[in-house]
Amino acid sequence: MKILIVRLNNIGDALVTTPFIALLKKNLNCELLILASHKNYFVFKNNPAISEIIIFKKGIKNILTQIKEINKNEYDVIIDSHDDLSTTVATFVALTKSKYKIGFAKGIDKLFTHLVKRENPTITHVIDRLLNLSLPLSISPDRENANVKIYPEEKDNIEIENVFASIFPEKKFNLFINISEIGAARFWGIKNYQNFLRDLKKYPINILVTTLQKDFQIVKENFPDEKIYYTESFLKFAALISKANLLFTPDTSIVHLASACQVPVFGLYVKYKTENMIWSPYRSEYDAIVTTEANLWNVNYEEVARKFFPFLEKQIKKSE
After folding, report:
1. Is the CB of residue 167 less than 8 Å from the CB of residue 208?
2. Cβ-contact 282, 125 below 8 angstroms
3. What pTM value is reported for the model?
């Protein structure tokens, strides 16, 4: 059986789809291919469940050429893994040929041969909703064993092992603080992070500040005394997260990397004009500050500190 899963959008969207991919591969004798975007295809690299990654190409001419190529390959099943409505994906599904087309009921029902009820997103984690896409294939979602899957290369693991040992030669509790975010709405502010790092000095722990390349210079200038790490390699960063005992981060894809490694998380979430459940880590212990405002700018330091430091002390105690 040849199955094509469509998963466009961003890194986090790709990561939360990996438990569903693993479930299919475990239960079916099938060849799984992924149609991914240029923003997220690297999430699927080295995944043993996936036979091939196809990168979606924008533009009408490119899309039509790609659809023609896909139709030539004669897929048995095409699965739209998006639980929101996308005109691009809908057009793709409509023009591709397959005996079975599976997707969520979301107003374009005639495109699919098999519809899956979209569970209430206000009380159902996105990963649980995606696992339900296995139901038309007579597979029961295995929620107990499901988790995000990511596969750094062995050379990445070795490099991170060496880099981490050189940064922190003394073994202690490792707290990672991720400062970077996708957009300005999720930036907590330099002053808040400076106060945070100041108060963390009373704990006998290793503290690593992580950042994206775009923010490295700003972080270096504002936190000159901190250990800072960045890498352009997503899989290398995934290998790094496995070294953490606790991750502090605004709502980013890193939350799902922590879930893959079962690293506890303290998150800062923006839940603006939505009732949907936050994309919390699926398999990690976590706590969070959630604001219903449009950004994190008014989340004050004292509010975070009151909740975070007891959580930190709990994790330190558990690690002893």
Report:
1. yes
2. yes
3. 0.95
